[in-house]
UniProtKB/TrEMBL annotation:
Substrate binds at L12, Q13, G14, R27, T91. It comes from Mesorhizobium sanjuanii. HAMAP family: QueE. This is 7-carboxy-7-deazaguanine synthase. Its EC number is 4.3.99.3.
Amino acid sequence: MSYAVKEIFYTLQGEGRQAGRAAVFCRFAGCNLWSGREADRLKAVCQFCDTDFVGTDGDSGGRFATCDDLARAVEAKWSPSLAQRRFVVLTGGEPLLQIDPPLIDALHDKGFEIAVETNGTLTPPPGIDWVCVSPKSGTEIAIKTGNELKLVFPQVGAEPQRFEALAFDHFLLQPMDGPDRASNTQDAVAYCLANPRWQLSLQTHKQLGIR
Ligand SMILES: C[S@@+](CC[C@H](N)C(=O)[O-])C[C@H]1O[C@@H](n2cnc3c(N)ncnc32)[C@H](O)[C@@H]1O
Ligand SMILES: Nc1nc2[nH]cc(C(=O)O)c2c(=O)[nH]1
Ligand code: SF4
Ligand SMILES: [Mg+2]
């Protein structure tokens, strides 16, 4: 199958338990919870998205006809002068609309450890090395096990307690960015202090001014 990719770039993972780690980000176009058009935001299932995932016009974006073409474009962002420990984060948009077993194999063949950032509504192919699920209010969770559950906080109808029985290794609260970011951050801090199984995830790339 072919892949529609908004952008591919090299940066530090900004969020979650792998924050601070160098990674190639591959952002797939399209999402099943929002069209990505501002005119549709208030009628979308997911209304707080901070990302432009429409089209294929970003840095190194495009339509990739084969998994090998896309794996080569990802590899091109990892400088040959670097030590190994290659790491790619597949995000979007919703990456699980497009990721298939041949792409996982092609990235593994190039020596990449593969992480995915997903809203958790679609079943992933096997073989992903790090699964981060970020549940959205009003949706049914299809992925009930994984490495981290990173809940944007607060969301009415997606309170943290609802997810505590799921089989994730780490539970994180990420303050919702937007007009209330400062108070959302204070509320997330208070929640983690009162509920130590939850850990704070800040969007460090935004503080650092990197992508
Ligand atoms: C843009 S999404 C793409 C991946 C996937 N669609 C998802 O929602 O997990 C990447 C991450 O950013 C988070 N995110 C999106 N908008 C946010 C916001 N306004 N504040 C904090 N985190 C946000 C998502 O919950 C997710 O963890
Ligand atoms: N630096 C950086 N870290 C991130 N972690 C998750 C991101 C995403 O948009 O999926 C993201 C992103 O866009 N940039
Ligand atoms: S599910 Fe993810 S990509 Fe889709 S609108 Fe929500 S935060 Fe954005
Ligand atoms: Mg982002």
